């Protein structure tokens, strides 16, 4: 039996808590966090509820480490699609279209993702579009695969409820799971924050972008963290679009992606602004993103678009990639950038490997 404190209630922290509870029926976990998925307002940077979210691995062709992590996530989410409708994960075809301008920017080279070939490509039913399946005046090539949309706030609450289910009791000595609102200024503070009066064996640091504020993390390490801003529109799906649709364009820091949720909403997004921490959605950006819907996907009716909400989020990127690292009884797990959902299960598995000292990291 081990006693854990996880700092952070984003997708990374909650998934880690889940996997710790699952790993041993006697393990106990306290999550300590500034923000929780059920908060109505996020006064500070908290990324997980803002995301779309889908699975479309960004791993480079030679990055087998991230490819393996993302494969674990894909399989887990498909397990939810098949067996756990309450998880809020919905099967959707995922379509990607590449414009002439983007193709030119890529040096006239077709860039297919790592999951376009090999065994996994068959599992996810990857296929390139044939001529006649897309508008050749707008696009040079395109592909699709069996993807998904994760309704983030439902999904995070589902994961927390799974933790309570494994806990068996809501509080007290018999409980195995506990949540506390709190802010730590140093990771090591968390060793004093267990809900049970017993020694904490491990602290798992899942603080996302805010890890840059933790005083016992080396300043050079903290400086590696930077935000990549995203703006998302939640709109009513009176457009009729059924696939997750991604349009790759040449504009710096911008793009277009559309995710149809089960609940009759679309998520429309399209910016990747490095270092920008502005929390307000500016109208010029909204106009650009929404005008691209008409420009690239004119087969749908965009005239009666009803915007439910606009939201801004900050992807927690880290120079050098994910930090999944053990320092004695502290394990860091942050810096998943624009891939926190798709990587969450694989990252939590790597953390388990570190606890068992199995990992070569
Ligand atoms: C617009 C947008 C679209 C995205 N789309 C996708 C997508 O389609 N697929 C995908 O996989 N990913 C996507 N992402 C990325 C994904 O959302 C992030 O990678 C992920 O949410 C990061 O999760 P996290 O748990 O690391 O951080 P967060 O969600 O930010 O959680 C951090 C937690 O740590 C707590 N915390 C921080 N500091 C302290 C402290 N000192 N004391 C106590 N608590 C603290 C916070 O309160 C919070 O609970 C998207 C992101 C954005 C912004």
Automatic annotation (TrEMBL):
<dbReference type="GO" id="GO:0019478">
    <property type="term" value="P:D-amino acid catabolic process"/>
</dbReference>
<keyword id="KW-0560">Oxidoreductase</keyword>
<protein>
    <recommendedName>
        <fullName>FAD dependent oxidoreductase domain-containing protein</fullName>
    </recommendedName>
</protein>
<feature type="binding site">
    <location>
        <position position="207"/>
    </location>
    <ligand>
        <name>FAD</name>
    </ligand>
</feature>
<dbReference type="GO" id="GO:0003884">
    <property type="term" value="F:D-amino-acid oxidase activity"/>
</dbReference>
<dbReference type="InterPro" id="IPR006076">
    <property type="entry name" value="FAD-dep_OxRdtase"/>
</dbReference>
<feature type="domain" description="FAD dependent oxidoreductase">
    <location>
        <begin position="178"/>
        <end position="353"/>
    </location>
</feature>
<feature type="binding site">
    <location>
        <position position="338"/>
    </location>
    <ligand>
        <name>D-dopa</name>
    </ligand>
</feature>
<feature type="binding site">
    <location>
        <position position="187"/>
    </location>
    <ligand>
        <name>FAD</name>
    </ligand>
</feature>
<keyword id="KW-0285">Flavoprotein</keyword>
<dbReference type="GO" id="GO:0071949">
    <property type="term" value="F:FAD binding"/>
</dbReference>
<comment type="similarity">
    <text>Belongs to the DAMOX/DASOX family.</text>
</comment>
<dbReference type="InterPro" id="IPR023209">
    <property type="entry name" value="DAO"/>
</dbReference>
<feature type="binding site">
    <location>
        <begin position="47"/>
        <end position="48"/>
    </location>
    <ligand>
        <name>FAD</name>
    </ligand>
</feature>
<dbReference type="GO" id="GO:0005737">
    <property type="term" value="C:cytoplasm"/>
</dbReference>
<keyword id="KW-0274">FAD</keyword>
<dbReference type="Pfam" id="PF01266">
    <property type="entry name" value="DAO"/>
</dbReference>
